[in-house]
Give the backbone structure.
Amino acid sequence: MKIEKMKKSASTLYTVFNIMQILVIVAAVILVVAAGLLFTLSGPMDAFTYTSLSFGDVTVRLAPGIEAGGMSKTQIVMILAAAVILLAVTWYGIRNVKMILQPMKEGRPFDEGIAGRFRTLGHCVLLGGIIASVLSAASQAMVLTSFDLQALFKPGTVTGVEYHYSFSITFLIAALALYLMSYVFRYGAELQKESDETL
């Protein structure tokens, strides 16, 4: 009874992750096409002007009618390329989740390969978190280098300043949890092997 429930749940999750994997591929293709189109377009980048500036945890709102330049095409293409790399890591992570679910769909929760897949998934989460953090910092640095920051000190330019804390270690916790799961499943696989041998 419990095995049947596990098989059904694993099958449903497999389908969900299959859809997610397709969506990740579509998003990556869209970003690649957008980067290609952006790089081939000529003329100024008027659509990418800013009315607020983010300095890490501090956001500065500019007065109405004041715009603070924008990023170059090359900078935007670099950010899109990094986003595609992040999507590639996400796709690989989802692929590993599907490989974990595959034996579970067949009623084999302690298959020998699952422990290794959990460890690989932990690597993906860790790498993805690092790439996302670096991407966020790099895009912020690119945005800030695009502006005339001295113009901010003119009277009437800034209408407000907001502070927001944004530090997350969620990806580290998730990676550690997946590493622990790999040990649990490795032990489960050993017990299953011993049980099969005694039968």
Notes: The CA atoms of residues 55 and 140 lie 7 Å apart. The two ends are 21 Å apart (CA to CA). Residues 2-198 form one domain.
